[in-house]
Amino acid sequence: MTEHTCWKVNILTLFPDVFDFMHHSILKRAIENKILQINTINIRDFATDNYKSVDDTPYGGGAGQLLRADILGYAIDSVYNPQNKKGSIIYLSPRGKTFTQSIAEKLSKEEETTFICGHYEGIDERVIEYYNVEELSLGDFVLSGGETALLPILDATARLLPNVLGSSHSLNEESFSSSLNGMLEYPQYTRPETWKDMPVPEILKSGHHKKISEWRIEKSIEITKKNRPDLLKNIEK
Length: 237
Known about the structure:
The chain has helices spanning 25-32, 69-77, 101-108, 125-130, 146-158, 209-227, 233-236, and strands spanning 7-13, 36-42, 55-56, 66-67, 89-98, 112-116, 134-137, 194-195, 198-199. The protein is of the alpha/beta class. It has 2 domains: 7-158, 3-Layer(aba) Sandwich (Alpha/beta knot); 173-236, tRNA(m1g37)methyltransferase, domain 2 (Trp Operon Repressor, Chain A, Orthogonal Bundle), CATH 1.10.1270. Helix 3 packs across helix 5 (146-158).
């Protein structure tokens, strides 16, 4: 992938106002500094009738409605050129692969990414086939719309962009980072030194960096073993 200075995000949605969230805090600064560009596209703008209809009943019967292939296709074509694509086109779906930190890292290196936020019972399967759409999920549960699934994906990815955080060192030893072999982060402490009769561990006040590092790795393993034992495969190889 080529070097880039800005990640452009196209969001196809029925509720563009949801993404006002992106204009706050760290992400707001990323947008103002032109490191991140959010482009929301209202799918209803591409409806072909006076009622702004975007959905219809599924062939073969069944409950609910599906986003129509033609309407969604018009919306995608307005921002995405399959012949000259600059990044992924992704549909938020419970049947997709589970979003992880490594996927966030991959997306943060793209020049442009297009996301489809579905509603109702989903979208016409032909859209996925025609545009070679990737599917992403947050986990084994179902949400009412793709917007609420996309927000944490955008947050997790945007903070990895160059110069978004005050210091790149902030990313070095987070949970799932390569420096922790994909494990969970160790405990952290700050002032006051004693709170509710609970003191800060003595090792962290020792100034002995090697021993502190060893303690943190040990605690990282303990927490991972307790909360996410599946991640230990990264250090057992």
